[in-house]
């Protein structure tokens, strides 16, 4: 009985520690293998689920209401975050008008990021989408060099070269396999009056246009947010709350103005026979976004930032594989090679960033004694 009471109190302490760490971002690593594996697996599952569900929703034959989709997801995300805060699991600051005004431009940029992401995922396979997202890392890295005095090491440059190579291989495999006269991207280009580029679109899927736009807007968003977050002192949960809350009116207005709310189009986007399931899937994907943030905090707390970066690199493989499993994406020599090269590039990048962080820490520690001697 004493052992059981001790075990019970120990479990309650662990739960309290997890809640405290998630709320404040603090906590220490554990040597227990189970406590390390659980958050890693949960993070990977949340990432895969969100990507697969989003792909399922936007892959509808007549789906064209991306702004409405994103608006519903953001609303669900805000509701989930507020609920979790009410339960005392996480903590973030209450809504403040001054903070909202300062953060609103960032939320508008986020709308551009998630919209271009949904459009690119609509036309590209999950493996190609996952591989091309690596290009965002390159843009961010060189943006930090220009605006924040960052630097790119030799090993980091090697990882960038591998990322570009994997993207080229993926594009080659995808275009040779998927681009046909009946491609939905070509139909959208013609319907939007892009007659002057019809010849180009017939050879290059417009999904790549959205993908490159997504990489550019994502990099601009991250770099701008990095500068703005210093002025607000936002935590990760503050950022998630304000981003989603402030994006809701922008997405709602964009949907009302740019999308067809007619009866026929609504039925085409949400067919009566699958409407309830589609709405559930959209709500689920919004909750999955919260799950990713939750499991990210859990993963970093239970392991380390280095392990988390390695998990992020390794996670690209199962995410890419999910497209081949659930959506029948072509499994060819080119697609498998592209995923493999992209996977290896992610590992090299994670190792490079870890080495760079160690070198910077060592340099800072060597500067302190010198400063003391001078004084």
TrEMBL record:
Matching SUPFAM superfamilies: Multidrug resistance efflux transporter EmrE
Cellular localization per UniProt: Golgi apparatus membrane; Cytoplasmic vesicle membrane; Endoplasmic reticulum membrane; Membrane
InterPro entries: EmrE-like, TPT_transporter
Main location: Golgi
Transmembrane regions listed in the UniProt entry: 33-53, 65-90, 102-118, 124-142, 154-173, 207-225, 237-257, 277-300, 307-327, 333-352
Cellular component terms (Gene Ontology): cytoplasmic vesicle membrane; endoplasmic reticulum membrane; Golgi membrane
Keywords: Cytoplasmic vesicle, Endoplasmic reticulum, Golgi apparatus, Membrane, Sugar transport, Transmembrane, Transmembrane helix, Transport
Membrane topology: Multi-pass membrane protein
Subunit structure: Homooligomer.
PANTHER family: SOLUTE CARRIER FAMILY 35
Family membership: Belongs to the TPT transporter family. SLC35D subfamily.
Function: Involved in the import of GDP-mannose from the cytoplasm into the Golgi lumen.
Protein name: GDP-mannose transporter
Source organism: Lentinus tigrinus ALCF2SS1-6
């Amino acid at each position: 009985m004493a052992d059981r009471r001790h075990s019970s109190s120990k479990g309650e302490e662990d739960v309290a520690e997890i809640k405290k760490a998630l709320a404040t971002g603090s906590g220490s690593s554990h040597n227990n293998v189970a406590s390390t594996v659980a958050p890693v697996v949960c993070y990977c599952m949340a990432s895969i689920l969100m990507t697969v569900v989003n792909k399922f929703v936007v892959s509808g034959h007549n789906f064209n209401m991306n702004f409405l989709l994103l608006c519903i997801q953001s609303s669900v995300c805000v509701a989930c975050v507020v609920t979790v805060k009410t339960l005392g699991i996480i903590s973030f600051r209450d809504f403040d008008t001054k903070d909202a005004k300062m953060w609103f431009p960032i939320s508008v940029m986020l709308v551009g990021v998630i919209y271009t992401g949904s459009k690119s995922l609509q036309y590209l396979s999950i493996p190609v989408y996952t591989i091309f997202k690596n290009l965002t890392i390159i843009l961010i890295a060189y943006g930090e060099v220009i605006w924040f005095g960052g630097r790119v090491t030799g090993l980091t440059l090697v990882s960038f070269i591998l990322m570009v190579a994997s993207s080229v291989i993926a594009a080659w495999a995808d275009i040779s396999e998927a681009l046909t006269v009946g491609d939905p991207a070509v139909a959208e280009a013609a319907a939007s009056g892009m007659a002057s580029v019809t010849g180009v679109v017939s050879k290059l899927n417009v999904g790549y246009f959205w993908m490159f736009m997504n990489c550019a807007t994502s990099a601009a968003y991250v770099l701008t947010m990095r500068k703005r977050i210093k002025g607000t002192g936002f935590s990760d949960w503050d950022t998630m709350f304000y981003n989603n809350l402030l994006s809701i009116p922008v997405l709602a207005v964009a949907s009302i103005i740019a999308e067809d709310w007619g009866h026929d189009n609504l039925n085409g986007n949400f067919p009566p026979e699958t409407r309830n399931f589609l709405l559930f899937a959209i709500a689920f994907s919004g909750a999955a976004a919260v799950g990713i943030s939750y499991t990210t905090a859990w993963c970093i707390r239970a392991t380390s930032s280095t392990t988390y970066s390695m998990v992020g690199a390794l996670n690209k493989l199962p995410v890419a594989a999910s497209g081949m499993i659930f959506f029948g994406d072509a499994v060819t020599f080119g697609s498998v090679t592209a995923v493999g090269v992209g996977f290896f590039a992610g590992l090299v990048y994670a190792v490079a960033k870890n080495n760079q962080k160690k070198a910077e820490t060592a340099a800072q520690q060597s500067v302190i004694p010198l400063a003391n001697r001078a004084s």
